Each structure stands twice: as structure tokens, then as C-alpha cells.
User: What shape does this take?
Amino acid sequence: MANIYLPVGSVTGTATAVANVLAETLNAAGHNALVDANASVAALNAQSWDAVLVVTSTTGQGDIPANLRPFYVQLDEQFPLQNGRPFGVVSLGDSSYDRTFCNAGALLEERFFELQGKAPIPRVTIDATETSTPDDDALFWLKEWMEVALA
Assistant: This one.
């Protein structure tokens, strides 16, 4: 059984819904998954998390949603080294904004690499113009991530 922290950044609620489905799946598999829409480095450090799974949409000009932005800034300012802790990123976006498509997920993935996190598989990008079931796309990716990150 693994403890998994799921910081979520959402504007319209889609990323939160996806994070909740992922957490339900992880919990059903015997893990302890916690979705946190008010993520913080304090919460990241408060428990012995075995893995981190970020779920975020992208807003504005490739920006991190307002509710997850403070977490991103704290990661930069406090620089909590992950020391090889597995992480994953589920990034939601709209490819009609091609230059900034899923940029929030890319920023968070880059930050966790800087913090010496280990991504067993690349982040998944889910395009709103190509799917009406982002949770299904995320669940497909989650299966592989679980096999590698939580083995």
C-alpha cells in the first residue's frame, strides 16, 4: 500500500473531477490517495507520501490555475527535495492554444525534476478538443504509472 498525494489545479472543475476519479481508483487498489485542491509544501512534507501525482489544467496564457499557483511558488521558494520520490503529472488543456497547450503540467513536471523527483513515465496530456472523457484517458495512463511508480 502506497500513500499518494494528489495536488490539483482546476478552473472549471474538470481537473478536480479527474483527480477524484484517480484517487478513487488508487484507493480501490488498496492505496491511500488524498486529493488536495489547496496544495502546499507543508502538506507535501506533513506525511510520508510515497508518490506525488499532480493533476492540473492550464489557464490564461499557459498559466497554472490560481488554486495551485501558491504550491508552485512554494516549491520554488522552499525547494523541498524529493530525493527520487516518484511523481506523475496529468495535464489537461486545449490544443487550439498550441503554444501554451498543457503548459501548466509541463511547468510542474519541470519543477519536480528540479527537486530531484523521479517520473517513471512521461506526463500525460489530455486535449479537450479530442476527448469528452478526460477521466477515461487519465485512467488509461494511471494503470501504467501505478505499475511502475508503485511497484
Remarks:
- The radius of gyration is 14 Å.
- The longest strand covers residues 3-9.
